[in-house]
C-alpha cells in the first residue's frame, strides 16, 4: 500500500531549535525536571542515577549519540539516528527527539538490562498514584451517576466527551509543569464533530473499531468505559485497543496499565464495577483485543507503519486516535497551515477516523481562518497550553 503520494509536499518539520518555543522548552526545562523526578521516584543505584544525570546534560548542551551497542533494537535505532548523530538535540525534529529521549531514558534506568531494575516501569509510581487518587474516585462516581440517571442514548455523547476531557490527565504534561493533574479551567472545544461520529456509528454496519490509546491511569478509564458502551450497544463487533509495548512518554498506556485500570473498575462498585467485569469477559472472548506493536514506540508517523498493519487499519469501521502525540503522528508533526482540511491531512488512511485531543503542541489542522486569527490575537500560546480541545472527524474518500 503506497500512501506517500497522498501526503503532497510536506512542509518543514517542527524542530527544537528556537529558544522560547515549546519544543525548546520541553528539552531545556520540562525533560530535565522529569529526569529529576524519575531519579527520585524509584530506588535507582549510583550507576542508574549517573546515567540519568548524564542524559539530562546531553539533551540541554550535548549532541545526539548513536544507540548503545547492547540495545536489542539497535539496528532500527541506527537507521533512525543516522541523519541526526553528531547534531545538537535542538537541531533535530521534535517528534524524533522526544522518541529518542524516552528510549534513552529507558536505557538509563536499566529497563532492558539483566539487572534488578529490568522491567521496572520508571513512570510506574506516578501512574499508580493517579489511578488510586481521589480524582479517579470522582470520575468513577460521576460515571455511576450517569448510568443511573440517564438513558443509554444520552450516555454515548457523554462517554465520548469524557474520553476527550480525560486527556487532560497527562502525567508528562503535569509532572514537569508542577501542577495538579486535574483538568484546567476554561478549556475550550475548538472543533466538535462528536455528533457526526455518533451518527456514523449508528448508521453504519457494526465492525471492528481501532482505538489508539494515549495515557494510562485516570485517562484510560473513560476510554475503557467508552469501549464497553460500544460493545454493549452493538456499535462494534469488536474493539482493538492499541497500547505501547514498553513505558513511553511517561503516562502512555501499556498492557499492564490496561489490566490495572480494569481492576480499578471491578473494585469500585456499581455500574463501573459491572463495566469492568464485562471488559474482562470481552478480553476473554476476544471481542476486546490488546495490541502493542513495536512500531508504536518508533519515531515515525502513523503512515509509516508496516504495510500489513496499515492495511489492517484500513479495514476498521472507525479509528479513534487519542491524545496529542497520536494526533502529531496522525497528521504529521510539520508546520502545516492550521486551516488545512483535516480529511486532507489524514487522506492516507482510508478508514473513518476521529481524533480526541487536548492541544499540547504546535501542530493543528482543520480550523477556520477567523478562529486562528482570534486565538493568535487573544490567547498567545494556545496551541501548547493544554486549554483547547478538539473532536475532529473525517470520513474516507
Automatic annotation (TrEMBL):
Reaction it catalyzes: beta-D-fructose 1-phosphate + H2O = D-fructose + phosphate; beta-D-fructose 6-phosphate = dihydroxyacetone + D-glyceraldehyde 3-phosphate
Pfam families with a match to the protein in the record: ARMT1-like_dom (PF01937)
The UniProt record lists the keyword Membrane: no
Cofactor (UniProt): Mn(2+)
GO biological process per UniProt: DNA damage response
Residues in Damage-control phosphatase ARMT1-like metal-binding domain copies: 28-373
Molecular functions per Gene Ontology: metal ion binding; phosphatase activity
Annotated keywords: Hydrolase, Manganese, Metal-binding
Family from the record: Belongs to the damage-control phosphatase family. Sugar phosphate phosphatase III subfamily.
Official protein name in the record: Damage-control phosphatase ARMT1-like metal-binding domain-containing protein
Organism: Flexivirga endophytica
